[in-house]
Amino acid sequence: TTWTRFEILQAKELEKKRKDDNITYCHDRGLITTEQACNARLALKPSL
């Protein structure tokens, strides 16, 4: 199926929000050292 422009914008917003949430999650735990270290820790975060 083809996505409408609106759907694409929504998906991009969602992706950006998810990234922001991830950064906040890492930052809250003092894990912002490298993105890689942060991502490794995120793998342990339970899905909500």
Question: Topology of this structure?
Answer:
Elements: H1 5-28, H2 35-42
Helix pairs in contact: 1-2
User: What is the helix fraction of residues, given as a range?
Assistant: 55-70%
Low-confidence blocks of residues: none
Q: Could you say which overall geometry the principal axes of the C-alpha atoms support?
A: elongated
Round the mean pLDDT to the nearest integer and report it. Answer: 68
In total, the number of strands is 0
Series of secondary-structure elements, N-terminal to C-terminal: HH
User: Strand content of the residues, in percent?
Assistant: under 5%
Question: Which structural class is indicated by helix and strand composition?
Answer: mainly alpha
Tally of separate domains? 1
Number of helices: 2
Biggest β-sheet: count, sense, barrel? none
Outline the structure in words:
The chain is mainly α. The chain has helices at 5-28, 35-42. It has one domain. The chain is built from two helices and no strands. The longest helix has 24 residues, at 5-28. 2% of the residues are buried. The mean pLDDT is 68.
Q: What labels describe this entry?
A:
single chain; 48 residues; 2 helices
Describe the structure in brief.
The chain has 48 residues and is mainly alpha-helical. The chain has helices at residues 5-28, 35-42. The protein has one domain (5-42).
